[in-house]
Amino acid sequence: MEAIFHERQEGSLCAQHCLNNLLQGEYFSPVELSSIAQQLDEEERMRMAEGGVSSEEYRTFLQQPSVNMDDSGFFSIQVISNALKVWGLELILFNSPEYQRLGIDPINEKSFICNYKEHWFTVRKLGKQWFNLNSLLMGPELISDTYLALFLAQLQQEGYSIFVVKGDLPDCEADQLLQMIRVQQVQRPKLIGEETAQSREQRLPRSDVDQAIEVNHPFDGTSMLDEDEENFQRALALSRQEIDMEDEEADLRRAIQLSMQGASPNTSQTDSLSSEELS
């Protein structure tokens, strides 16, 4: 996995990460993408000016912010498309009915660019295997051939736009290496910041822990080894036992505190504690 180039998320520069992860190198910087965006803005301004610089439409256009970039580091699909043209690459909308009617198996493509709202990421074939190169992940995520179509269908269901990258991608070390060997991945890479989230889960009530585990470990098409699964279940059972013990200790401390305050057994506070809790 070390040979695979993978930029992690910085700020809102997911378009830059998406392109560099696709091309497997530091090919684009925010400055270069901003230059492309400014060029697109100028071309749009010139087209609007053809209708007259004194027109209401032109004045309104000048007052509106750029649709090709913003201060956060977001770049539009037009910027990404123009950046890829430098490499002779073209984007085709995978979601479109026209492309779907061709009946092309996704496994026969080379790479995809996915977008939801303002986040971009790449799914690419390196050697003979597919990888999710999302910059929000701590590292590349292996996607099995059988799971690829399901993975893309799930993204479509969630509202993602998916683009097929057509053309010859530049040569890279990872592609050459993975032509000769196949890698295995026992556990999916974590999301950036997921470790912090997991430490918070340990302080949640049991039902919330169960829900958090389900969210953070969705079905991803790669099976966990039996031994690891058993260890996971044992760790989960131990965590539940610890939570139960902490609950019992908390109840005991409350009962002791009430007795030290001279609380009467007939008060509403002691009524809320069962006989088992006070024992």
Automatic annotation (TrEMBL):
Gene Ontology BP term (one)? protein deubiquitination
Please give the residue ranges the record annotates as the region Disordered: 256-279
Pfam family of the protein (one): UIM
Q: What Gene3D superfamilies has UniProt attached to this entry?
A: 3.90.70.40, S15/NS1, RNA-binding
What is the top EC class of this enzyme, as a single word? hydrolase
Tell me the GO molecular function terms.
cysteine-type deubiquitinase activity
List cellular component terms (GO): nucleus
Q: What is its main location?
A: nucleus
Q: What is the official name of this protein in its record?
A: ubiquitinyl hydrolase 1
